[in-house]
Structure formats: C-alpha cells, structure tokens
C-alpha cells in the first residue's frame, strides 16, 4: 500500500526555488509561524507541496541558520559526536547551533571521512 502522497502534484512548481517564492514563504512563516505544512502552500500563495516548503524553510531560509564554512572546532565536535552517535545526523546537528542535519551529513561524506582516512583512522570505527 504505502503512504498517501503529500500533495496533488498537478500544477506544482518543481526545481529551483525563485526569490519570489522564498519571499512568500518567509513572509507567511513570519506572520503565522511554522507548522501546518500541508495547508501552508495554498495559504501562502505558493505552487509547491508542503514537504518542499518545510525542507526549504528548515535547510535554507530559517533566520537562525549559520552560514559559511564549518570551523575547526565544529570539525572536531562532529568527529567526536559521530564516534558516539554514528550516522544520527539530526542528533549531531542538534548540538551544533545553526547547522542542519543535512548539512552535517553532507559535510561528513564529502570532507571528514576523507580527513579521517588520510590520518589513518577508519571513519566507521574511529580506530586506526
């Protein structure tokens, strides 16, 4: 059977978000708060599904997101937390203010695994 689709896909915008769409989403959430993601697109005047709106807000538009490169201190903390928690990215991100689980996961897979391997450390076991 499976899960019901998040929305009617007919007539929805797909692909990259425009500045206008971002502005509509920010304006709506600023006025009404987060939540009710299934009904938000219609109420905000967006032709996107609720899941797309939620992910856009959480991963790109939230005002508390930290922009820019991950610091050396954050590097060390991610490695330490990964050794304790494994690939539980949302738990790890919860301990790094302003960073998302998706950002941490991508950073781990593109940078930190290679860094640990170059140091002779297995990125899964955190042992030589």
Describe this structure in words.
- The chain has two domains: 19-61, Arc Repressor Mutant, subunit A (Orthogonal Bundle); 72-119, Arc Repressor Mutant, subunit A (Orthogonal Bundle).
- The longest helix has 18 residues, at 101-118.
- It has helices at residues 19-32, 40-44, 50-61, 72-85, 89-93, 101-118.
- By secondary structure, the protein is mostly helical.
- 53% of the residues lie in helices and 0% in strands.
Short description:
This protein has helices at 19-32, 40-44, 50-61, 72-85, 89-93, 101-118.
How far apart are the first and last residues' alpha carbons, in Å? 45 Å
Poorly predicted ranges: none
What would you say the CATH architecture of the largest domain is? Orthogonal Bundle
Average predicted local confidence, pLDDT: 93
Tally of individual helices? 6
CATH class of the largest domain: Mainly Alpha
CATH superfamily of the largest domain: Homeodomain-like
Return the structural class. Answer: mainly alpha
What's the multimeric state? single chain
Form type: elongated
Biggest beta sheet summary: none
Give the helix level as a range of percent: 40-55%
The CATH topology of the largest domain corresponds to: Arc Repressor Mutant, subunit A
The arrangement of helices and strands along the chain is HHHHHH
The tally of strands reads: 0
Topology at a glance:
Layout: H1 19-32, H2 40-44, H3 50-61, H4 72-85, H5 89-93, H6 101-118
List keywords for this structure.
128 residues; mainly alpha; Arc Repressor Mutant, subunit A; 2 domains; 6 helices; transcription regulation; cis-regulatory region sequence-specific DNA binding; DNA-binding; Myb_dom
């Amino acid at each position: 059977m499976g899960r019901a689709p998040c929305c009617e896909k007919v007539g929805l915008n797909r692909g990259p978000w425009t500045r206008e769409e971002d502005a509509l989403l920010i304006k709506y959430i600023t006025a009404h708060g987060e939540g009710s993601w299934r009904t938000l697109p219609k109420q905000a005047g967006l032709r996107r599904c609720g899941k797309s709106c939620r992910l856009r807000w959480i991963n790109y538009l939230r005002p508390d997101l930290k922009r820019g490169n991950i610091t050396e201190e954050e590097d060390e903390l991610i490695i330490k937390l990964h050794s304790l928690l494994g690939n539980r990215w949302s738990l790890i991100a919860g301990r790094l203010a302003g960073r998302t689980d998706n950002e941490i996961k991508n950073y781990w897979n593109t940078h930190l695994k290679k860094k640990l391997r170059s140091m002779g450390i297995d990125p899964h076991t955190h042992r030589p």
